[in-house]
Amino acid sequence: MKYQFVKAHERRFPVLVACRILNVSRSGYYAWRGRQPSKRSLSDQELTGRIRAAFHKSRGRYGSPRVHAELRQDGVPCSRKRVARLMRQNNLSAPTRQRYRRPEVEGREHQVVFTNVLKRDFKPSSKDEAWAADITFIPTREGWLHLAVILDLHSRRVVGWSMGAEATSALTSKAFSMAFTQRSPQPGVVLHSDRGTQYSAVGYRRLLEAEGVTQSFSRAGDCWDNAVVESFFATLKREEVPPRGYGSRVEARSRLFHFLEVTYNRQRRHSTLGYRTPVEFEELTRDA
């Protein structure tokens, strides 16, 4: 590592000075420069290039676990620890999400109780048993466009969605209203989400209670409790959203509508569904 530092900073520091500071010999440095890189070093260089591509493809949002998953999906053999090491060495790190802070409320009757009812049961036996919801941010030249979605965990179908310039409980309420109107589920359907204020707001919770929906929350800071929607958003951004975002919110709305209702629900084949589309899978299981 010391020799690599000397080589990387030859234009800024004389080799002799850098070697003295790092307590290495100049002859040893030049001997190292003359050696051919090892197979492991060459392999690391090639893998680092792929890691950078996956990291920048996610617009810097992926940490080592998701970058590793992306590489494995592309058929690149590597371990998660190796990916993490190379990302650290190359200063590739995703921004950390702020911890959720429970809002101060007055009176126990309004106390928000976060319960994980779903418990990562991502394969219910039939549709409209369990839904999962979340919000993501879509870049445009006019600013962020917030997208709230609800997925049926049985078929992975997008059953409700809403878009807006602000991430509010009104946004999530519109997505729920769309899902409930289209599906008319029986009382007791579980709706899982993270602990965001858009889902813990009193108005949103009362809306779900009025329709007989059982609300479920992820544990604090645990994105894997809502892994299906996280995976959906990764697919959306990888396959639809341009690297630099959309030109306007109007363009984004149009393109996202087509992806949600046409491409994803009716055309894209899912490995978890036996390479059927969500609509096909629902029709198949309905007739079974």
Q: What does this entry look like structurally?
A:
The chain folds into two domains: 2-89, no CATH class; 109-287, Ribonuclease H-like superfamily/Ribonuclease H (Nucleotidyltransferase, domain 5, 2-Layer Sandwich). Helix content is 46%, strand content 12%. The model is unreliable at 96-110 (pLDDT under 50). The chain has helices spanning 2-8, 15-22, 26-34, 39-57, 64-73, 80-89, 169-183, 197-200, 202-210, 227-239, 249-267, 278-287; strands at residues 130-140, 143-152, 158-164, 190-193, 214-217. With 288 residues, the protein is an alpha/beta fold. Helix 1 (2-8) packs antiparallel against helix 2, helix 5 (64-73) packs across helix 6 (80-89) and helix 7 packs parallel to helix 9 (202-210). A five-stranded mixed β-sheet has the order 3-2-1-4-5, sandwiched between helices.
